[in-house]
Backbone:
């Protein structure tokens, strides 16, 4: 297998593995840029995956046909936003510790969703969805030599949405007044307050945006990959997204790069086992490769990851 | 005011955690309580039927599920079906207890032993350590465990535990025959969960079956090293299909969901790809609006095994200390009843090879060494 066909194999897989991480990490970006640590991304993804599958099944039943997973994505986004209010109320209004409240959110999400699955379906996992989101190939663009095969010949539409979202988030965070306020709240809330920005309102909006995007991330994973929901459907992707956020230095483009890097490392370790030249390498080295690459990248090439100044601190009006 | 809100929030979170506990074991409340508690709640917890039918003396059979629960559409559910069937056929009392957590196994098994259960089943190898210690404390009681062999420190089996295993390699051989005959690219694949003795049986049986009918076929094997990572399963399936395999057999639990997703995606683009399921009839997983990608499935008849061991015990032949292997001869393994995508030629071949295995003409390999010997003998 030559290098081109190997890349033809690895790159589309990397993109598809990275897509849910991109959505979720962009959500975390809003929250953390506003100074609220969001360990609860995992739980928000669980709720998103659960709602995505359940509502796809419901909309299928109502006769929405192929549109049902897309409508379900929107519902998962709304439910994610509402669910994140637990985190917002606890950590912003009540000024509870943000890590504790995020961890509580994770427990609540998995407990609640497994309980509801038992209630609705009478067993530990949901039925399989029929109306899925399928990989598509883009006419014209797929005929571009090399790149056409990588990016346009078999790709989930949700991956395109994720890429566009990266640029939208970049624009919103760095080029709009809203983004400036968001960042100032995360860097120096007192200064922001003095300038008339409603600090807690900004934080609420940011946490709800993170819930919405993490909800989409979870739903995208469930709808495109697992096709049903059970207690083990989301196992660690939320934490991977958090890692991608920090690895990407709280910047949308960095997040995109980090998520793609994680996806690339994983698909490389899988594809490598079918490449004749590497067939004699013991499997364990290929399996640990993604983690070794990540550590090397973090230690050697990225430099210091410095987050927003006021992250993790709750803001009390008038305190100094 | 803030305090009230805080209290309110904690109540909600605590409630959520409680829900989680109920969600996994909604049939029972007091199982982790004191012995008195568990006695009191026994009546509400009994499985639905066969009450009042008991006329075969005091003989009764009960089982403890693993964390999958009695309705897991797999192992535990199949075992319970076998028990219910046994209860109906022989008019004896059958029941189950669900385990919501690994720490429930020992108390649940203990409870069955104390209730003078004639035969207590532990469903799944996860309970291996617990059944060993419980059986040691109740040496006058009879136990059975599915999918694992219990040995003491000296490597001997335990006299009051019957060990139920399956000849997965034989069932895998048969689906291998189907794969070998129906592959058009002459290239098939296998995706394993975690590499180990058990999954190796699936792998080697499958490979032997393919080679038996199609010696030139290429077989690609890859392990996900995870039973619950659909994304990894999809990536592996993508790699194998892209490299030319058109039939993939999986023994990888939830990781296999990704294989079905990948196959459906490709089938939708007009590719001719197939999946072979495992443990139960996986036709449901392979269905999409234009057809079904499930070629066949290798099924393990846990219900048959449970039924037969119960029957032996009732007749006074409790196979304690024995290692029972349920294979083709007692319908312990086989191919799934759904055969819509299997050609008549393949079905005939399956029947033919089944007979060859049954009358000992061929021995299906289980380990890598046996597979090498098998290949040399072809």
Residues:
């Amino acid at each position: 297998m030559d290098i081109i066909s190997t890349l033809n194999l690895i790159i589309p897989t990397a993109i598809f593995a990275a897509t849910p991480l991109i959505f979720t990490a962009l959500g975390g970006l809003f929250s953390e840029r506003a100074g609220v640590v969001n360990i609860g991304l995992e739980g928000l993804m669980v709720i998103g995956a659960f709602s995505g599958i359940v509502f796809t099944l419901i909309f299928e039943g109502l006769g929405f046909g192929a549109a049902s997973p897309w409508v379900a994505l929107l519902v998962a986004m709304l439910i994610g936003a509402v669910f994140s209010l637990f985190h917002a109320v606890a950590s912003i209004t009540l000024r509870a510790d943000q890590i504790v409240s995020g961890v509580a959110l994770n427990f609540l999400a998995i407990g609640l969703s497994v309980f509801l699955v038992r209630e609705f379906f009478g067993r530990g996992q949901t039925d399989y969805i029929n109306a899925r989101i399928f990989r598509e190939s883009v006419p014209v663009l797929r005929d571009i030599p090399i790149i056409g095969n990588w990016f346009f010949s078999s790709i989930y539409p949700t991956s395109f949405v994720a890429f566009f979202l990266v640029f939208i988030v970049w624009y919103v965070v760095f080029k709009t007044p809203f983004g400036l306020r968001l960042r100032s709240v995360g860097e120096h809330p007192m200064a922001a307050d003095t300038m008339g920005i409603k600090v807690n309102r900004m934080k609420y909006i940011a946490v709800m945006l993170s819930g919405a995007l993490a909800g989409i991330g979870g739903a995208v994973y469930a709808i495109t990959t697992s096709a049903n929901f059970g207690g083990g459907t989301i196992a660690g992707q939320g934490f991977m997204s958090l890692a991608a956020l920090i690895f990407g230095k709280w910047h949308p483009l960095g997040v995109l790069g980090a998520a793609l890097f994680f996806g690339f490392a994983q698909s490389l370790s899988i594809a490598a086992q079918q490449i004749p030249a590497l067939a004699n390498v013991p499997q364990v080295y290929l399996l640990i490769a993604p983690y070794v690459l990540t550590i090397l990248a973090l230690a050697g090439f990225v430099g210091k990851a410095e987050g927003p100044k006021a992250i993790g601190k709750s803001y009390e009006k008038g305190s100094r | 005011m803030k305090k009230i809100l805080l209290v309110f929030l904690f109540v909600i979170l605590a409630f959520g955690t409680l829900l989680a506990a109920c969600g996994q074991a909604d049939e029972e409340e007091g199982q982790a309580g004191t012995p008195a508690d568990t006695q009191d709640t026994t009546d509400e917890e009994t499985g639905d039927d066969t009450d009042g039918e008991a006329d075969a003396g005091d003989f009764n059979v009960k089982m403890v599920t693993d964390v999958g629960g009695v309705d897991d559409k797999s192992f535990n559910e199949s075992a319970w079906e076998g028990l219910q069937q046994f209860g109906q056929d022989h008019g004896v009392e059958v029941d189950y207890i669900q385990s919501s957590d690994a720490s429930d196994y020992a108390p649940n098994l203990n409870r069955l032993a104390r209730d003078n259960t004639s035969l207590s089943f532990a469903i799944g190898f996860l309970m291996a350590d617990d059944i060993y210690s419980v059986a040691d404390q109740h040496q006058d009681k009879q136990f059975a465990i599915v999918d694992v062999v219990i040995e003491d420190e000296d490597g001997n089996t335990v006299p009051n535990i019957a060990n139920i295993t399956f000849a997965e390699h034989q069932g895998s051989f048969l689906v291998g025959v189907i794969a070998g005959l129906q592959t058009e690219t002459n290239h098939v694949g296998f995706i394993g969960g975690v590499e180990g003795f058990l999954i190796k049986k699936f792998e080697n049986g499958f490979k032997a079956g393919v080679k038996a009918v199609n010696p030139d076929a290429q077989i690609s094997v890859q392990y996900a090293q995870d039973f619950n990572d659909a994304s990894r399963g999809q990536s592996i399936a993508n790699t194998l299909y892209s490299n030319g395999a058109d039939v993939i057999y999986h023994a990888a639990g939830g990781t296999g969901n990704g294989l079905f997703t990948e196959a459906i995606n490709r089938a939708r683009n007009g590719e001719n790809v197939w999946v072979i399921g495992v443990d139960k009839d996986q036709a449901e997983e392979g269905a999409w609006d234009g057809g079904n990608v499930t070629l066949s499935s290798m099924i393990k008849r846990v219900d048959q095994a449970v039924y037969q061991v119960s029957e032996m015990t009732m007749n006074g032949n409790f196979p304690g200390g024995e290692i029972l292997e349920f294979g083709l001869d007692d319908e312990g393994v086989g191919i799934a009843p759904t055969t819509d995508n299997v050609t008549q030629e393949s079905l005939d071949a399956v029947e033919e090879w089944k007979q060859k295995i049954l009358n000992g003409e061929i021995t299906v390999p289980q380990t890598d060494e046996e597979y090498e010997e098998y290949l040399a003998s072809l």
User: Anything to note?
Assistant: Chain B has two domains: 54-166+301-333, 168-300+343-377. Confidence is low (pLDDT under 50) at residues 23-56 of chain B.
